[in-house]
Amino acid sequence: MRTYKTQMEAAKKGIITPEMKIVAEKEYTTPEKIMESVAKGEVAIPCNINHKSISPEGIGAGLKTKINVNLGISGDCKNYDVEMQKVDMAIKFGAEAIMDLSNYGKTNTFRRELIEKSPAMIGTVPMYDAIGYLEKDLLEISAEDFLKVVRAHAEEGVDFMTIHAGINRRAVEAFMRDKRKMNIVSRGGSLLFAWMMMTGNENPFYEYYDKVLDILEEFDVTISLGDALRPGCIDDATDAGQISELIELGALTERAWERNVQVMVEGPGHMAMNEIAANMKLQKRLCHNAPFYVLGPLVTDIFPGYDHITSAIGGAIAAASGADFLCYVTPAEHLRLPDLNDVKEGIIASKIAAHAADIAKGVPHARDKDNEMAEARHKVDWEEMFKVAVDPEKARAYFESTPPADRHTCSMCGKMCAVRTTNLILEGKKVEFCTEK
Q: At the topology level of CATH, where does 7-361 sit?
């Protein structure tokens, strides 16, 4: 019988939960250290009490960088089977989180199936679902209606929710005063901005923040404080709107912690490389070292079709500089709903960024697989290389597409392979190219 409502409440009471033990084992640390970090809010373990199939993960300082995969149906793409195939792919490649961003029709059937089968933590943005769930136009939706959607998602077993509570009147004033090229590019943020401007009311998620926390505490849902004013192009990065909202998110973080609700804070966006490290430090300072969840950042705006790469570059820098959680970006970003191949490319790009950052940060055992690959390459053991590779099918397909005459080399260098040459000399053998052996 649980004597606590949330992971944070347990940690503050000195209770090591089963989820903390699992996270500690995955992270090569002790449950006591995980408990201490959760108590301080520096680590979150998003784990809804109704998500029975979850394999708990920790997000935050000192832990491996986690990645999230976005999917979901829209009015133009309503194929639930394809979206579930994307789920399978995300699980196959080890994504720690999946966000269902469905915004068309009655989405709860898909979401319940997703929660039932997924060991990855599940996130949603209730604002996206509000219009379809309530079957009302934006202007007709009340503050109470928004809270109904939050409760519905919590009851279904969603582990974390993006709540755009920071775009209050103060943040909007800063946004309006400091003109942008791209204005608001957050879907949920733009809908709330429109609702606020049309009704003249305060952001309901800000005005009724305590009621939101009531719901999240009841089901141990982690709040992911959304960055409605994130920059949508590199020219808008680190402007008054973004920073004004970030200040609000820092205050909302402390209010959630007072209620023992776990917190993540979301960040940019589009941003030039030279601004990323400073933004990570600023967020950690203003938001009291809460886990930081970033989309990208995308470091340039002119490569549509390749934004998984622009995002991976920014994500690697961000994570190496303190970000804890990367939202993947696919080659379809800014262009269309991603297909299966796009999803795979996005996952792999984000995995590269996260892993490279973990090596840079000295995360325990981050280099282990790289050392295994080095050993396999030293021995020119192709089967072992494929076994260690994150995507063995692609690696094998490339190798076999132009097979070498000598299986102890590849078709790039053939017998002039540097590894082969050095190995032969160190074994006391001759290096011969003109004589077939």
A: TIM Barrel (3.20.20)
